[in-house]
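Dear colleague,

As promised, here are the two records you asked about, laid out in our usual form so they can be pasted straight into your sheet.

NAME FIELD: protein one
SEQUENCE, THEN STRUCTURE:
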Amino acid sequence: MAAQKKGLGRGLNVLMSSNDIPQDNNVLEIDINKITPNKSQPRGTFNEDSLNELAQSIKEMGIIQPLTVKKIDDYYEIIAGERRWRAARIAGLKNVPVIIKEYDDLKSLEAALIENIQREDLNPMEEAFTYIRFSDEFGLNQEQIAQKVGKSRSAVANSMRLANLDKRVQVFVREYKLTNGHARALLGIQDNDLQFELAERIIDENMNVRATEELVKLTIENMNKAVIVEEKKVIRNPEVARECMRIAKELGSIFGTKVNIKNNRNKGKIEIEYDSIDDLDRIVGMIKEKMQN
């Protein structure tokens, strides 16, 4: 599935990136204990292995790219560079280089978001909820948000839609078990339990985005063909789609291959995939054996 990027090269890239927030030459050395993370930081997770790699780089080369901070009373709040700060603490540094900026809350959030997006450090859910914060807290529309982060309005809109995912599916996205493409495909399933069960199957079977889109399409077709008429309203029945998926998963575990069930009211069909003629013979043999028993 979607694994996190690793390697010392990425740590050095973070240190030496030329895509940081614009800075000046007023670099100061500040006691690391007087610096605190920003509670509004878009990133909610920090990979421990990645931090340790960055800490090793800092031990060898120091912090090449200063942190960006703002002064609040007797301490300094990080605007950009929390990964460097965390890694510096692991490395045992007593002081770190900083540049002090006089940013308001909106500018601070904007700077932190842009830094993370440029480095691709945010997972899709963190990015989605940061855009929502821009909208809810600062009253920005999607076009204004897009201009600030250098993306198209449609990209921002699609990202914000991920907040509609089932909470359990959001966890999968945060943990990089599902990619942005998987998550967007799952938005087509409105029933939360069914969406979660599909997500589990996608992870279990290590489906790519194309296969996920096909699975979602098939599930919606099964759901649309199973309707309940209630008070002159046609209601899609997710239970039938859920049952089809359960049986398909069970058959797939028996045959050791991918199985799909296409439902059409009172009849349907079962599709069993095979990789070769030998694989087909194996599956047919299993069916014959089951029939004889």
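NAME FIELD: protein two
SEQUENCE, THEN STRUCTURE:
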Amino acid sequence: MYGLLQPIVTQLKRKATYVKPARIALLPMAFALTACSTVSLDTPRTPVAVSAAESAQLQTLRTITSQQDRLYRIAAPLLVSNAPLCRGNARNLIGFSAKNKYSFSEDYVDAAQALGFTEQLQVTGILNNSGAARAGIKRGDILATVEGQAMPAGPNAERQAAAILGPMVGKRSSIKLGLTRAGSNVNATVPLTLACGFGIELGNADNVNAYADGRRVLVTRGMLNFVRNDGELAFVMAKELAHNALGHPSQQKMNATAGGIIDNLIRITPDASALSGSGGIRPMPQELDAAADKLALYMLARAGYSIDGAAAFWQRLATQYPSNAANAYTAIHPATAYRIDAINKASAEIKNKTAAKKSLMP
């Protein structure tokens, strides 16, 4: 679900009978972690003997969680700093994420328990500069009550908590929580945080690509391996966030197609047959792509990221993975020369506004 209860590792959803989790506007889906995970993925809170198979699962959890945490960390300033640019997609969010051992797929429940997760929902990450951070919420806090009502535990805790919290978020400026911290009861009043309400997902595939379906952004493992640093990863994430903010998936009538690709790629083992060619995604028209590039640069600048090197990055990506490379980014964003020209113009515009101390609004 959005934010507060979105699992750290969205790839590890139940595989046997996949059901989309309930979603509420607390933090963007799959985004809540902007720091390290609550429970150390190197040393379980309570050591538990595990089999060889479970040990392999633990390593899978560690690897995927590390990649997901990186996405959350890079996305955090982009989402929080750009609520005015997200148009109708800005939401009041609570600013942290929580999960329990059932937040993982059925095959990974035992591994999650070995890492210290229990029946109860516990805070797994806090959004920097959010109301939760200002209220002193800490990773590892157990969620006991919300506005005096007991928080659920067990296999359906996230969905049940969503039903409790959902109606509250739209009516309040803050939420009162009862927490258990190191065995002691702690009360906290958490102001809500306005941010772009888009989800951030990790795609468990090696193709070098990223997707937006109008409500989520997914970056593949292959793209994570391609980018040279966090700044380049921010270029990719801002571009897809801009597509969502501008409503391009809807204009292209690609919401369902892109959504299906994202649903597939967040699984531990995606259906490889669905990754052939462009996966049914139509190439983005150059005018829409250039518009997203311009908005992305504004988002980056507002979030404190350098926009220097953006044109060089996209050119390098297009050179190494040209439009005829199956299931790669340029295949669905082919207008490289047109985009580079738009990027250079937008970069100059932003730098001029910055020098003149003008508002960074497109």
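A couple of things worth noting about protein two: The radius of gyration is 20 Å. The first strand starts at residue 90 and ends at 93.

Best,
R.
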